[in-house]
Specification:
Rossmann fold, 2 domains, globular, binds adenosine-5'-triphosphate, binds magnesium ion
C-alpha cells in the first residue's frame, strides 16, 4: 500500500483533547474518528488492528471448543423482564421503542439472549457442556465516556457463555476460559494478571478480572509481585491440568480495590512482594450457577430422570478496548515510537525510499522489494511521498510497523538498511529480511 493512496489522516501534533497516550496516538494517526460522545468510527489503520485482535481472540476461543454464533445488537425487553434485569440495569441501558410501541434495547451484554437460544433447543444433560460465544458491538450509556475507545459507550466485545450440568463441570468450563484468556493476552504480547473480582450486576460468586498494568488504568490493583513470573504454557485442556493452573495463580494475592482489604493484604503478602499499582481491565469472567437459568426456567433432564437448572458462566473480552490497552503498553510517547506486536500490527513493515526530485530509482527499488514481500505474505506500507526523510521516518514511527527498510544511500546493491523497531539497524539482503519476518510471524 502506498502512503499517498491510503486513508491515514495523520495530524502534525498531539490533539489537545486526548488525556492518555492511547487516545492521543489513535487520533494522531487517524485510527478512529469520534462520531458522538463515546461513539467512534474505525478508520483503516485502527480497523486493521482491531480485526487482527479479534482474529486471535476467535482462534483461542475455538481452541477450547467454544462455538461462534452471532446474536443481534437489538434485543427485546421481554427476556430482560424475565431475568429481572430490565429494571436493575438502570440508566446504562439504552432503551428503544419500535413503531409497534414494543420496548427494545441495545444489548449491553447477552446472558438473557443466549439463555433464550439455549433453552429453545437443549433439553438433556447429554448435550452438555455447551460453550457459545459471539463478537458483537455492545452499548452501555456510560455516565462519563472517556479516554477514547477505552471507555466508550459503543464498544466491541467478545462474550462467551458456558452451560453445564453441575458445579463441578461448570468449573471445568470456567478453567478452560481462564486458560484461553492467558493464551490470548500472551499472543497479543500483553501480561494480563487474573485477579479475584466482584461480580457486580452480572451476579454470582466466582469471578476474575484480567488486568494489564498501566499508569493510566482505571482499576487500582493490589498484588503479590510473584504472580508476574507465572506461566501457563505447560497447561493442557485436561481437568486436572486446568485445576492446577488456576491454583497456581490463586496462591498469590491479586485483587482490585473492590475486594481489597488492607489487613489481609499485609498479613498474607510480605513487604518485599507487595505491589500496589493501576491497571486496565481487558477481560472479565464470571461463574453464576443458576442465576439466569432459574429466573428464565432453563433446565435439562439429568441421568436419573430428574431435572435441574443449567449452570452458567459468562466470559468477556474488550476487543476494542484492547487496541488502546496495547498502545498504552507499547507506545513510547516521549520518542513518539509505536511498537505494535507483529501479531496485530497494521502493517508488518514500512518501506521508506528516500526520493529525490527527478529520480525514481529508490521508489522503483521499493516496488521491487514489495513484490517479493507480497509473495511471502508480508504486508508493507510504502512511503512514496516526496517529503523529507526525517518527517517520513517520524510518520512511520507513529504508524508503528514493527520493521522498516530504508532505501537510500546505505541500501546499496543487495544489502538493505533494515531495522526492527527498538533494535540496532542492520544491513541485510532481502532474502534474510524475509526470513526474519517469516520466522517471527510463524511464532504468533
Ligand atoms: P469496567 O469495570 O471497565 O466498567 P465492566 O466490568 O463493566 O468494565 P464487563 O461487563 O466485565 O465490563 O465487560 C467485559 C469487558 O468489556 C471488560 O473487561 C472490558 O474490557 C470491556 N468493556 C467494558 N465496558 C467497556 C466500555 N465502556 N468501553 C470499552 N470496553 C469496555
Ligand atoms: Mg468487568
Amino acid at each position: 500500500m502506498y502512503l499517498s493512496e491510503s486513508f491515514i489522516p495523520i495530524l502534525k501534533n498531539n490533539p489537545s483533547e486526548a488525556k492518555i497516550k492511547s487516545h492521543q496516538l489513535m487520533l494522531r494517526v487517524g485510527m478512529i474518528k469520534q462520531a458522538s460522545a463515546g461513539i467512534y468510527s474505525w478508520l483503516p489503520l485502527g480497523f486493521k488492528v482491531m480485526k487482527k485482535i479479534e482474529g486471535i481472540v476467535r482462534q483461542e476461543q475455538n481452541k477450547i471448543g467454544a462455538q461462534e454464533i452471532l446474536m443481534p445488537t437489538i434485543q427485546s425487553s421481554e427476556i430482560w423482564k424475565e431475568s429481572g434485569r430490565y429494571d436493575d440495569y438502570g440508566e446504562e441501558m439504552l432503551r428503544i421503542t419500535d413503531r409497534q410501541k414494543r420496548e427494545m434495547l441495545y444489548g449491553p451484554t447477552n446472558e438473557e439472549q443466549v439463555t433464550e437460544i439455549f433453552r429453545s433447543s437443549i433439553k438433556s444433560y447429554k448435550s452438555l457442556p455447551q460453550l457459545l460465544y459471539h463478537i458483537q458491538w455492545k452499548f452501555r450509556d456510560e455516565i462519563r465516556p472517556r479516554f477514547g475507545i477505552m471507555r466508550g459507550r459503543e464498544f466491541y466485545m467478545k462474550d462467551a457463555y458456558s452451560f453445564d450440568v453441575s458445579d463441578e463441570e461448570a468449573f471445568f468450563s470456567y478453567n478452560k476460559f481462564f486458560l484461553s484468556y492467558l493464551r490470548t493476552f500472551k499472543r497479543l504480547s500483553l501480561t494480563a494478571i487474573p485477579m479475584a473480582a466482584d461480580t457486580g450486576p452480572i451476579g454470582g460468586n466466582l469471578s476474575h478480572e484480567f488486568v494489564i498494568l498501566a499508569d493510566t488504568g482505571e482499576s487500582k490493583i493490589f498484588t503479590d509481585k510473584r504472580i508476574f513470573e507465572l506461566d501457563s504454557s505447560n497447561t493442557n485442556l485436561e481437568k486436572l491440568s486446568l485445576e492446577n493452573m488456576r491454583k497456581k495463580y490463586e496462591q498469590f494475592y491479586a485483587v482490585t480495590d473492590e475486594k481489597f482489604n488492607k489487613e489481609e493484604f499485609e498479613k498474607i503478602v510480605s513487604e518485599d512482594n507487595r505491589l500496589i499499582t493501576k491497571g486496565i481491565e481487558v477481560g472479565h469472567i464470571f461463574y453464576f450457577g443458576d442465576k439466569y437459568s432459574k429466573a428464565m426456567a432453563t433446565s435439562v433432564d439429568l441421568p436419573g430422570g430428574k431435572k435441574d437448572f443449567v449452570k452458567m458462566g459468562s466470559y468477556g473480552i474488550g476487543v476494542s478496548r484492547l487496541v488502546g490497552a496495547i498502545i498504552e503498553a507499547k507506545y513510547d510517547d516521549k520518542k513518539e515510537i509505536m511498537k505494535w506486536p507483529l501479531s496485530v500490527a497494521p502493517y508488518d513493515i514500512a518501506l521508506i525510499p528516500m526520493i529525490n526530485k527527478n529520480d525514481n530509482t529508490a521508489l522503483q527499488k521499493a516496488n521491487n522489494i514489495n513484490l517479493e514481500l507480497i509473495k511471502n505474505d508480508i504486508d508493507a506500507i510504502i512511503d512514496d511521498t516526496d517529503e523529507n526523510f526525517s518527517s517520513k521516518v517520524k510518520k512511520m514511527n507513529l504508524i508503528g510497523a514493527p520493521f522498516q527498510i530504508i532505501i537510500g544511500k546505505k541500501s546499496d546493491g543487495d544489502l538493505l538498511e533494515f531495522k526492527e523497531i527498538g533494535k540496532e539497524t542492520q544491513n541485510l539482503p532481502l532474502k534474510k529480511i524475509v526470513e526474519i519476518i517469516t520466522k517471527q510471524k510463524s511464532l504468533i
